[in-house]
Design brief:
This protein is α+β, with helices and mostly antiparallel strands. Among the domains are: about 380-460, Sandwich (Immunoglobulin-like); about 470-610, NPCBM/NEW2 domain (Jelly Rolls, Sandwich). The chain is built from 14 helices and 31 strands. Strands 9-8-7-6-5-2-1-10 form an eight-stranded parallel β-sheet. Helix 6 (about 175-185) crosses helix 8 (about 230-250) and helix 10 runs parallel beside helix 11 (about 325-340). The structure holds alpha-D-galactopyranose. Alpha-D-galactopyranose (GLA) binds near residues 57, 195 and 261.
Amino acid sequence: MTIRHLTHRRLATVLALAACAPAVHADNAASNLRPSGRFSVRPVATAATPPMGWNPWNAFHTQVTEAKIMAVAQVLKSTGLADAGYRYVNMDDGWWLKRRADGRIEIRTSMFPSAALPDGGTSFRPYVERLHSMGLKAGLYTDIGRNACSQSWDEHGANLPVGTRQEREIGTYGYQAQDMRLFYGEWGFDYVKVDACGVADFQAEKPFVKDGTYRALGPYMVRNRPDLSEPKVVERLYADLRAAIDAVRPDGDFILSICNWGEVHVTDWGKDYGQMWRTSQDISANWWSMLHNFDSSAGRALYAGPGHWNDPDMLEVGLGEFDADHPVEARAHMSLWAIINAPLVLGADLSKPAPVVLDIIGKRDVIAVNQDPAGNQGVIVARTADTEALVKSMAQAGTKALALVNRSAHPQALSVALARLNLDPAAPATMRDLWTGQERAVERGVISAELAPHETRLLLVRGLPELKNGVYLGEMPARINVAADGRTQISALRFASWVPAQVNASPAGTPLMVGGKRRDNGIGVLSDSRLEVRLDKEFSRFRTVAGANDDTARPLTFRVYGDGKLLFEQAGTQPVEIDVPVRGVDTLELVVEGKDREAGVVLATWADARLMR
Ligand code: GLA
């Protein structure tokens, strides 16, 4: 496609996409704190809501065939699941035969008979067109290194690439442009999942490298060891891949799913290159694995929004501890993925689905929570060892999805006050159980539930916003971009589990504090950091109390900018009250600067941060 063929609107998107392509993150330099004057998240061309679909990995691993995939595709259509949103029919590891001398990848035609061309070559075009003709989208799988996960983890498995060492190098490393042209261009795929075993598992000491089976690369990523990894190299590889995709699909109509399991802080930078990025290791079909993966995404609301989503991995509903015999767990899993805006990629073999499984994955009211157009990820508002409550602000003012979660194998009672949902406790409110459809009034401003073991109650609560004429920043995480997160090399190593910016919690996961007082609402950040908030000229004032998160008085400087112009600046050791006019402002920026000599960073809080209309 040439620029000549683009409509004005699409041309505008193309130019905007190009202008927004970020350079690989510089270290936490002072320049990062300079206002950008704009909301730097790329304009959304796809994945405006979390992608939904199916992937064969959880059910079939590499033992997949075209027939098995098409059987599931048919079921997605015939059962109405496609209409409910499950449109991406993906593929995972195992499809490739080899890379030819001219660099083109050949498809394993024993798996995908329709890929065999009369001239002896192979193409996925017929397969993709078949899915497209069914109203579905098509997804493929590859790796950011030279080799794939099956080659390191399933050494003697079926369906490994064949041929010489070079022919078995089917990953994108060194072939970014050629592969992206083939996948998104010639073959017409809509979605590619890009794994990372190739940069993690092929170090010189590996027996299969020593014996010459595979070539050494890196490792640039050592699992759970950021200190031994090379984050910049990994980020650069994904950035290059994104650039190669942009060149093939300048309209932005594609999905890049980054799959490096939350390593090398992709959780902080994935948003700049992919529409989704994994936040943890592979899920398995058991309760603790599901919770572990959920936790890896649950505190990261400020990193997600339209066009970019935290990915705790595919759904296990219909499998193992989430199968038809475990409907409580299956509903919990689905509820949790829904409330944190996780991509809903089904993983079970759906060719003969159990009715209860179909009911659960097809529950429209639950899907609607996940697919709400505002794109606000749910935030944690209460937590004990066994329970937690998450609130997701829906597009409709005064409407909140609430998940009451029992993580334990025992019954638990749980209560959440309407105030924790930023709803007026004195005004009438209703709540609807999205699994049973039961609706009732909220009494005395408190929502209480007796939860069965492993139960999650998912409710839609409607009331009156607590702020009559405004909104807390914590209610609009999709409109916040963590532009400079304050992570330093030291803090990244010492505090690897911190989330640099969080709603209603400090980066360390502790309660928000300012001036020695606990604050229920606000954004916890690190110094030095800069948040961009998309106002779209909708508001007239910004108010907050800003300060260090603890009372060991460290000097901090707080700055507020409106469209790049300084609106407020104050330095000191005491909390500062900020109340500035923002009428006509598109992008608000919140900067905090100040160093602690020992830790390198300071925990700071924008408490009760709110925008008034
Ligand atoms: C990795 C990914 C999985 C799957 C396998 C395929 O483990 O995280 O989702 O794609 O590779 O080998």
